[in-house]
Amino acid sequence: MSTRPRSTRPAVGITEVARRAGVSPGTVSNVLNRPERVAEATRLKVEAAISELDYVRNSSGSSLRSGRSDSVGLLVLDVTNPFFTGVARGVEDEAAEAGLAVVLLNSAESQDRQRRNVRLLAEQRAAGAVVMPVDDDLSDLLWLSHQGTSWVALDRGDVAEDVGCSVSVDNHAGGLAAGRHLIGLGHERITFLTGPFAIEQVRRRHEGLRDAFTDAGMDPDAHVRVVEQPMLNPQQGERAVDTVLAGGPRQRPQAVFCANDQLALGLMKGLGRRGLRVPDDISVVGYDNVDLADLVHPGLTTVAQPKYDLGRTAMRLLGSELNDPGHRHERVLFTPELVVRGSTAAYRP
Amino acid sequence: MSTRPRSTRPAVGITEVARRAGVSPGTVSNVLNRPERVAEATRLKVEAAISELDYVRNSSGSSLRSGRSDSVGLLVLDVTNPFFTGVARGVEDEAAEAGLAVVLLNSAESQDRQRRNVRLLAEQRAAGAVVMPVDDDLSDLLWLSHQGTSWVALDRGDVAEDVGCSVSVDNHAGGLAAGRHLIGLGHERITFLTGPFAIEQVRRRHEGLRDAFTDAGMDPDAHVRVVEQPMLNPQQGERAVDTVLAGGPRQRPQAVFCANDQLALGLMKGLGRRGLRVPDDISVVGYDNVDLADLVHPGLTTVAQPKYDLGRTAMRLLGSELNDPGHRHERVLFTPELVVRGSTAAYRP
DNA sequence: GAGGGTTGTTGACACGTTTCAATCCGGGTG
DNA sequence: CACCCGGATTGAAACGTGTCAACAACCCTC
Q1: Model pTM?
Q2: Nucleic acid strand C within 7 Å of B302 CB
């Protein structure tokens, strides 16, 4: 007979530990949750029993009893969105410190799937959630609060403070910074290459760009042209080349500001295929500062969002909402930062 | 008095639904779990009560009772690893179809954190887990099986079939394909730019490359040089340029096969900075086919791994392990595919 | 009309934890 | 010596669900 453990072991719970330590279940519970209330000697006995029996606590039990679980949801638009990974890391780290587990749920841009996921969170009696809402319709989230699960909205600065917290980045400031940079380089004909204007973030970036011209005493209508594509991915960026360049060399933009790095990278590929050089023939600015913006040649000038801090802050806010009884909803706004690389240069007539 | 719901509602459980429907709790449970066992009329009554009371099931309760929760863990090396997102999508989709929630846990390349995460899964009595192990030490996973949570290893083909399932991609075949491609283009001096050889995947790719030479009747030792960097990221790729090019134009490789797209992209950036053109002066092959491999100029020839299918298959295997009592551990091996783009060209002396 | 089978429903219990009032004990005080 | 106090521990009662043996009602057959 070896000491090899049975493949299915008899469930060992708090009660069995109690028996082994010659103590009541309540005491074991105290050892686990409020060790200060229990005498040194008994604590040691119990801890010994715990490790001898290789006891692991059953979180279903405690969630059931306390009415709330110790996991939080991270409801994300799209796992493949490069913006997401940075945020996830921030949320993960902060949650780990608070002893919370993160449940990743993917809405895949679908309203229907978002609803299913919200429901799942409610069933789990999740402690809270960090959510990137799929669209302007917040009814799912309101229902969730009503179920007793609080949340923090990500990148949705327009959430009223009486319904929930939000953490976002100032898109207007980002557009403004990009605009100023290009104007400073002497560019006067700028195209804003974007996804659907239905997306609030995109609209704000556009306004920022226009305000940069206004601030410089120039009429935005005369200098900013818009090319709108149905999606914010590289394929759309590449496809947009024709439209962007339409009108011949005299008409074509001196610089393109893209609502997204993905679009920008696609566009640069398309430009290269057309024999146009960046930044000699045309400057390009992106938005997001994805990891690989630094790897293309030339490097992509872009507006960096503090992804990690965004996630981390959202989770911290959620923590405060969970623990601090006097919590008031808060709206945190980060300011993005322009990262200048090789894809922009002074205009040479 | 408006009909606005109280902000904290009285907990409504299966019993309250039962009362409302004039039926016993057991019946409500049956309606939820085995609707076929209950008569049409009562089913409708119960369903009505459920929606009137806006009942949502409490998964803590059911997990406690059944001893197993309905969520699976996805234990990932590093959320920022580009390989991961594709896998995650596959796991997500398959899990969603099976009605399972995915708990994302990030090991951040740390053995210690992996251990904490495994423990968390045990506490949650997770149904199962899809795991990318942090290193060769499988003791955490064995402990997890012993706790009754089964798992599927990802990209770890060396897991013995008597301890668990595994899904992986044939790294040897990938190296072989890359090697054949380059040899076919007439290249004879090839450098293998890689991360630490301690990583099994990397070793296998190297062997594949060497075997391509052997198969062609050439001595690998004479044609393959190795440059080993401490990590598999773009910075290391860029930094490696000096070593790769050492020895002057007559000695330098005609082509570089990188263990990783990240390395390859970094290398290409470094080569560009040195004034060397890809593929005219030197050909480059990567590994992984990350999204942006198609966006750099020239496009990166690379070995594509079926990330999505990998995740999906892992989750499917896990499902079979959970439901099928006669389950035998399985080892699935995918074959990678070479994607030829602009970064490789025939050797021109 | 008694017996037997089928279909639907019931009650009660168990899962593992936390909580809280009640109890126990030892030492200090009047 | 009676009393009380405070710290340490106990025991029992929930939390919401799933299971299962038992029971009720019904139909069919001989």
Answers
A1: 0.87
A2: no
